Amino acid sequence: MKDLLSPKDIVRSGLCIGCGSCVAQAASNGTAMDFDWYGQLKPKGPEEWYRSDSESFTRTCPFSPAAKNEDHLAAELYPTARQAHLATGRFETAYVGHVSEEDFRLQGSSGGMVTWVATELLRRGLIDGVAHVVASQNPQEEGRYFRYRISRTEAEVRQGAKSRYYPIELSEILQMIREVPGRYAVVGIPCFIKAVQLLRREDPIFRERIRFTLGLFCGHMKSARFVESFAWQMQVPAEQIEQVEYRHKDPNRPANWYNARLTLRDGQVVNRDWWHLADGDWGAGFYMNSACNFCDDVIAETADISFGDAWVEPYSSDGMGTNVVVVRSPLIQELVANAVNENRLMLEEVDAKFVEQTQAAGFRQRREGLAYRLTWSRTGVQPRKRVAPDSKSATRQRKLIYRIRYYISAGSHNVFKLARSIKKPQLYIRWARMAAAVYHGLAYHQGKLGEMLKRFAELRG
């Protein structure tokens, strides 16, 4: 394998997550992040830049095998951490609960903790701005439904509440941070936070200006086609969509009953539960970025604080939403502890095992599943992960599940592309129903044909 890598090497090897770190560092004019045929963000630019091997790129791409891994970064960032666990990495304290102050909890998809921490950092004068994801004002004109923005007021930060299962990238806000002095917090999924930490090791400007990192637990990155699939299945024109809400909150329904809502230009609102969408089973891997097959960080182990949903009972049935929180920064730990004492946060301390249980499916996919996938033959750049290749530990059924998930992920991109190009949505929808039914039968019912047929009939409605 080459010692030095180029953006092209990572993209062609299926390891580009689309974070935009490479574009943010590019000295070449004409570089940008843009959507490819499959609705995934990829770097574009002059061939000389795209093909050029680079020491800096090799060290800072989060999926480069030569980049420092999460264990190394966390040891540098949090050398005095009180606790460490194989699943969660280093940390000070872990909690489960929600925000009780104002309406943070109601506004968020979960317990409101992400927005609260970002807002508290602003209130305390510890930062001047928050880099986070917000909805695009004119998505049809901008060509995307969500993007990163730097918010400088509490009202602006609150506009970023709720989950966004959509490809976004960091290049524009990283360039802004470089150009505009100040103290910033960055919110992101695990690989994005890793990219930021790798940049901070390389560049003193980022090291000085990015003061805090807020991580989001992650299952995988979806492509932009997920929204178009919503539109197809709800029978509305995708080009008329103005707002996308992936998880509409209803306090009277369990938190894990996801409901997708689309708002159109004429004000019409359509919605459907994920369970009734052909590609709505998250675990099946529809539209998953191929790089996610080679990620071993579920909970953003290199972030100062990270947040997820508490997917265990009784919390998963609480329609108001509940966060599980892992704190690594002593300063943020002090902020959180003080707010708990003041009853602004309703949090209880939990151990690493509890955190792992709330994300059990994600850890199986990113640890046992990853170990199995690392034994598969592949071309291009070879991932180097903290998990050792292992084709023996997983049961036969688990291996079959990892295989079918991999094929559904790849197939969803290709079948959707074909259906889109020939303007035959039903081609994709029928394929997705069949794939979902097979996955359902294998994952939940030991491959029983009757259960597959039952699920297929349910999805036909």
List the total number of helices: 19
Which regions have little confidence, pLDDT < 50, spanning 5+ residues? none
Whole-number count of domains:
3
Which structural class do the helices and strands define?
A: alpha+beta
Largest sheet: 8 strands, mixed
Q: Considering DSSP H and I runs of 4 or more, what fraction of the residues is helical?
A: 25-40%
Brief rundown of the structure:
It holds the Pfam family FrhB_FdhB_N. It is built from 19 helices and 15 strands. With 461 residues, it is of the alpha+beta class.
Structural notes for this entry:
- The protein has 19 helices and 15 strands.
- It is an alpha+beta fold.
- An 8-stranded mixed sheet has the order 7-6-8-9-13-14-5-15, with helices on both faces. A 3-stranded antiparallel sheet has the order 10-11-12, with helices on one face. Strands 1-2 form a two-stranded antiparallel sheet.
- Strand 3 and strand 4 (89-91) form a beta hairpin.
- The chain is globular, with a radius of gyration of 21 Å.
- The mean pLDDT is 95.
- Pfam families: FrhB_FdhB_C (PF04432), FrhB_FdhB_N (PF04422).
- This is Coenzyme F420 hydrogenase/dehydrogenase, beta subunit C-terminal domain.
- Residues 7-36 form the 4Fe-4S ferredoxin-type domain.
